[in-house]
Each structure stands twice: as structure tokens, then as C-alpha cells.
Amino acid sequence: MSRTVYVNGEYLPEAAAKVSVFDRGFLFADAVYEVTAVVNSKLVDFAGHYARLVRSCGELGLTLAVDENGLREIHQRLIVENALQEGGIYLQLTRGNSGDRDFHFPPASTPPTLVLFTQARAVVDHPAASKGIRVVTCPDIRWQRRDIKTVQLLAPCLAKAFAEAQGADDAFLVENGYITEGSSCNCYIVQDDNTVVTRPLSNSILHGITRKALVKLAEEHGVTIEERLFTPEEARNAREVFISSATTFVWPVIAVDGQTIGDGKPGPITQLLRRIYLQML
Ligand code: PMP
After folding, report:
1. Residues with Cβ within 8 Å of residue 35, at least 6 apart in sequence
2. 209 lines ligand 1 (CB under 6 A)
């Protein structure tokens, strides 16, 4: 089925949705993005994703010409036009097309490019949520502003290819001996005392919207979260390991670098956090 895609104010059949070859998103990855989950045709935590988009734009001097309500309406119209029940909406905002390839930023009057499209996929009943995933660790070769959600995703693509070549589902990235985050998710380990450990927020990781919700929910349900660095070895020996992101919510990790976590089945803290996250929707 051909999707309806949003491009700069127009709702177009996907085959007609086009962006210039001179667009700075294409030439320089001069662009930011967001992905908001959709469950039962409703947006999950749209306010959180909008707030992070505004922050990303602010950090890069990108102009977001549409306000929160305007953007919510575009998302909602795409849900209706594409009869989307479950999945996500991808949004990309670029510094636009200045008519040539030029390293210098174009005049501020250059219109940005805003594209949104829907992606139908299972979120609530995804098999990985009950089976868990296997991850391998690999070096984090990304730039130093991972807190900005830019479309420079070659390093995560390479990490996922590395994981696939090892027969794993995903990769955890390692810098200076510590796990930063997953190729497209935040990472957590559960210690023997049931404390959940996750890396503190900094420029080294993306400030996950799902992470933010989980930290709050965990505290409300008496699960202690400790924000500190942790090593691949700690992850391999943890009682439980899990990930979070907008389109996975919470997925158990059942092996790290080939080492089975716990009894190789999703652990109770992971399952509890996934359950309370789903209840919140
Ligand atoms: N870290 C990285 C590198 C990611 O790509 C993502 C997913 N966008 C996340 C963390 C999780 O963030 P969120 O919960 O906002 O999807």
C-alpha cells in the first residue's frame, strides 16, 4: 500500500514525495530527526519528542517553523490518512536546499525541509519483547554530540552490520572501557540487589524519551535507578540486561558477547518495567 507522506506542507503519495539532491540533509547530514511510537492509533509521549526536537534544533540553529500543536496535527493526519494502528512516525528536519553544495550555512531565510512518514510495525506484541535479543559490544566511533538527534547514522548502521555478522541482533557501543548506549537505544543492567544501572545523561548519549519515562515510572514503583557508568564485563555478568527506545519500549537482552544473561530468559525487573510502561499508554 502506498503511504501518504508529508513534505513541506503537502500530503503526497510516497512515490511523489521528493527532496532536492542539493538538500543539506542529503549532502551533509545537516538534519535532525525524531521517531514517535503509535499504539492504538495514538501518539506515545508526543510532548517529550517535540521537546527534544526543539532542543536538537536549538543546538544546531535549525529553524522549526511549526509549533507543538501544528506538528501534532501533522502526525495525527498521517495516522488517519495511512490508517496506522501501531508503529511509528519518522520526522526529519533539514537545513534545506540552498541550490548548490556549499559547506557554509545558507542564509537563515533558506526554508528548512520537513518530511514525515509513517511506519507500520508491531510494538506491543513484538516477538523480541518476550524472547529477548542478543547483543555484542563494539567501539563507539560516533561524534561527541550524541545528545543531538542528528541523521548522521552511519556509525550505528556499521554497528548493526557488525552485530549481524556475529549472529547477534544489536550492538552496545563502548568508549573508554564503558558502555555508552546501544546502536539505537539506551542500555540498562540489573544488579543482584535489583538496582537498575544506566549511564547518566551527558553529550555521550542520546537523552532517550523512553528512558526519561522509565526512570520516573521505576521510581514510582519502588525500583531504584542508579545513574553511573558500567562496563561490558558488568553487563555480561549482570542479573538482567535490557534496552529502551521509542519503538521497542523495553526489550530484554538475553546474551552479551555470547555470554548468557541470567537463565537466558527475560528477567523480572525487565518484565515489570515493560509492563508498567505499557500500562501508562
Ligand atoms: N540512543 C540512541 C543512539 C538512539 O538512536 C535511540 C533511539 N532514537 C535511543 C537512545 C532511545 O531514545 P528514545 O527512547 O527517545 O527513542
Report:
1. 49, 88, 89, 90, 91, 246, 247
2. yes
Determine which one of 18, 42, 131, 149 is catalytic: 149
CATH number listed for the domain at residues 4-120: 3.30.470.10
Say which CATH architecture domain 127-280 belongs to.
Answer: Alpha-Beta Barrel (3.20)
Q: Could you tell me the distance, in angstroms and rounded to a whole number, from the CA of residue 279 to the centre of ligand 1?
A: 21
Is 216 catalytic? The answer is: no
Q: What is the pLDDT of residues 235-269, one digit of tens each?
A: 999 999 999 999 999 999 999 999 999 999 999 99
Tell me whether the CATH fold assigned to 4-120 matches the one assigned to 127-280. Answer: no
Ligand 1 center to residue 91 CA distance, Å? 14
What local confidence, expressed as pLDDT, does residue 121 receive? 98
Any residues with CB less than 8 A from the CB of 61 and at least 6 apart, and which? Answer: 105
DSSP-derived 3-state class of residue 1: coil
149 C-alpha to ligand 1 centroid (Å) = 8
